[in-house]
Structures are given as C-alpha cells and as structure tokens.
Amino acid sequence: MKIKELKESDSTLEIRLGEDFSDEVLTIGHFLSPKDNAVYFCKNKKFLERLASSFSKNPVKNIGLIVDKKFYENEKNSNKIFSNFSFIFTSPHVDLSISKISKPFYEEKYREMNIQVDGRQLGTAKIHPTARIAPHVFIGDKVEIGANTIIHANVTILPYSKIGDNTVIYPSVSIYHDVKIGNNVRIHSCVAIGGDGFGYNFADGQHHKVWHFGGVIIEDDVEIGASSAVDAGAFIPTRIGAGSKIDNMCTIGHNAQVGK
C-alpha cells in the first residue's frame, strides 16, 4: 500500500513528513514486534516511549507514523524519535484511524484466500502420512499437519494454519486462518482459535471495527479445555506459551501474551 492509499482510507489524515515516500507500506506495526515498511500508531507520550524503546533494541527502516494531531504539535520540536520515521501523518482521532486503515490491510492479506475448497483437493495441504484424520474434517489451502497428529470429526482448519506433531484436536473445533499450533498440544471439543478479537473504537455514535490479522501462536505442550476461545491478535499474534493449561469456557483476548 502506498501512502496515498492510506490517505484514501482515512481522509482526516494530514501529511507532515515524507510526502515523496514511495516505498510500499506492507503492514501495521506494533512495538512488541517492530517491522520494516510498517506504519505505527501513536496517541500520546506513553505510546511514543514504547516505540522509542522498541526501536532502540530492534532498529527498523522505511517506517511511518500516524500520530494524534495535538500531541504531535506539542512534541515535534522536542522529541527526537520523530526522526526515525520516513513519513508522518497526523490524525484528529487516532483510534478511528486504526479502524479505517486496518480494513484495507486485512482485505489485502486475505484477498486470495480460498475458503471453499479443501486443501487436499487443491493439492496444497501438507499432511504427514502418520496423521489420522476423521471424516467430515475441512482442511484449508496450504494447511500443514504434522506426524502422529489426530484430528477428530467435524473439525475446521482454515487456510495457512499449521499443526505440529503428536497433537490431538477433538471434535467440532474451529481453527481459523494463520493459526500456528505446536507439538503435543491437546485442544478439546468446541474450541475456537483465531477468531476476530473483540476490538472496536467508538466514534460518531457507533462502534468501528478494528480488523484483526495477527493470528495466533500456540506453543508446545499446551492444553485448552472445551468451549474456550483464543482470539486472533490485531497486528501481532496472540501467543500461548509452552506448557500452559487453559480450563473449559475461557477466553484469551486478542494480543494476549501468555508466558511459558
């Protein structure tokens, strides 16, 4: 996406730096996992300090910033971090800008995703010959399933997800796209993994959706009880650390980083 397309997604943006920036903006960045060619959002000094600390440890390049207009006016001459950015937009309502701009990134990422045809029919699914797959399982495009893994009936695994070795997925589990599940994991019936996080910004009398495309990472030796949910991260993966145990009917919200 070019910066002019960011402006087209949110007409309230004002360019303050880098009008001639011509590189592609590939994604929305997050201070926990900084990336090159990403645009970052900042509402106040706390957010700016988080970005500054992250960039000092993980230098990045070709990055942009969408920042609160009043905050930028107060800080632009005194805060050196602004020199890190190749382009800067100001916004009168940063939260609303997040909702507007996340949608085209989401649409671009999943534009070509085939959700109708099983990856076994497409020839793109990679299933280890020792895996055991019950009837009535949908395995999406480019899904990978490891050795000795067991998938029970009525499980749905959407495109681009990966499941490791010696894992058991019980009946009626829904695994959305971009979910990475490790080895020796047990996921009980009716669990949903990777659904949209519950993220909305309220403005102009209505709730505006934040479009989540960060996915989920579930590390080795995790067990998740029946009827639980793990929401996809907004712009980084929600992560469940190795060895974690989650009871029945629990929700792990978007962006959560559960430790080992």
Can you tell me about this structure?
The chain is an alpha/beta fold. The protein contains five helices and 26 strands. It has helices at 3-9, 45-57, 69-75, 94-110, 119-122, and strands at residues 14-17, 27-28, 38-42, 64-68, 87-91, 126-127, 132-133, 138-139, 144-145, 150-151, 156-157, 162-163, 168-169, 174-175, 179-181, 186-187, 192-195, 200-203, 206-209, 216-218, 223-224, 229-231, 238-240, 245-246, 251-252, 257-258. The strands form five sheets. A seven-stranded parallel β-sheet has the order 6-9-12-15-20-23-26, with no helix packed on it. It has a six-stranded parallel β-sheet with strand order 7-10-13-16-21-24, with no helix packed on it. A six-stranded parallel β-sheet has the order 8-11-14-17-22-25, with no helix packed on it. The protein is elongated and about 60 Å long. The model has no long low-confidence stretch (mean pLDDT 96).
**Number of helical segments with 4 or more residues:** 5
- Annotation, overall tally of beta strands: 26
| Percent in helix | 10-25%
Net shape: elongated
Gap between N and C termini? 36 Å
Q: Look at the structure and give the mean pLDDT.
A: 96
Gyration radius, rounded: 20 Å
Largest sheet: 7 strands, parallel
Low-confidence stretches: none
State the strand order across the main sheet.
Answer: 6-9-12-15-20-23-26
Coarse structural class = alpha/beta
Beta-strand proportion: 25-35%
Write the layout of secondary structure elements.
Elements: H1 3-9, E1 14-17, E2 27-28, E3 38-42, H2 45-57, E4 64-68, H3 69-75, E5 87-91, H4 94-110, H5 119-122, E6 126-127, E7 132-133, E8 138-139, E9 144-145, E10 150-151, E11 156-157, E12 162-163, E13 168-169, E14 174-175, E15 179-181, E16 186-187, E17 192-195, E18 200-203, E19 206-209, E20 216-218, E21 223-224, E22 229-231, E23 238-240, E24 245-246, E25 251-252, E26 257-258
Parallel strand pairs: 2-3, 3-4, 4-5, 6-9, 7-10, 8-11, 9-12, 10-13, 11-14, 12-15, 13-16, 14-17, 15-20, 16-21, 17-22, 20-23, 21-24, 22-25, 23-26
Antiparallel strand pairs: 1-5, 18-19
